[in-house]
Amino acid sequence: MQTAIPVQRKVTRPRADALRNRERIVSAAREMFVEHGPDVPLDEIARRAGVGNATVYRNFPDRDALVREVVCSVMDRTVAAAETALAENGDAFEALERFVHSAADERISALCPMISSTFDQNHPDLEAARERTEQMIAMVMERARAAGQLRADVGVGDLMVACAQLSRPPAGAGCLSVDRFVHRHLQLFLDGLRAPARSELPGTAVTLEDLRQV
Question: Which residues form the HTH tetR-type domain (predicted)?
Answer without folding.
Answer: 19-78
